Amino acid sequence: MTETAIFGAGCFWGVEAAFRRVDGVVETAVGYAGGSTAEPTYHEVCSGTTGHAEVVRVVFDPARVSYEELLKLFWQVHDPTQVNRQGPDIGTQYRSVVFCGSEAQKEAAEASKAALVAAGHRIATSIEPAAAFWMAEDYHQQYLEKNRRIHAGLFRV
Fold first, then answer.
1. pLDDT digits over 87-110, tens only?
2. Up-side HSE of residue 12: CA atoms within 13 Å toward CB?
3. 156 falls within a domain
4. pTM, whole model, 2 decimals?
5. Which of 15, 42, 104, 131 has its CA 20 to 30 A from that of 152?
6. Which residue among the candidates 5, 11, 73, 108 is catalytic per the annotation?
7. Domain residues for 144?
8. How many domains does the structure of the chain reveal?
9. Residue 157 lies in a domain
């Protein structure tokens, strides 16, 4: 039996590539969540008018990788202290957010965030109930894997 996690950590291309390398991750998809528009397009999300974040939906086998392990990677693949940005990418679509699909996920996400705060980090990440996930356009799916030569110097794929 699998479970699903949804993470927003800036541009979804690199975040998806990181999660795809995890043993126990069965499937990933990039898309949009947390906004007010049904079936938003990339252009609409980038306009900042829909309220969506770029996210990665991670389907995983909890017998092989725990949600807590996925959270650990989430904190490592981006800068959770940034508000509405990651590096040069600026806008609400790049916000740091964990969408929780269950009470257990919410408790785990809050505990892992609290541990970082207790260690002295100023975490901007929001933890929210799962929102509708809208699949991004096909050309965004596994983007870095499909475009390995173009981005070889920028990302480890």
1. 899 999 999 999 999 999 999 999
2. 30
3. no
4. 0.90
5. 42
6. 11
7. 3-151
8. 1
9. no
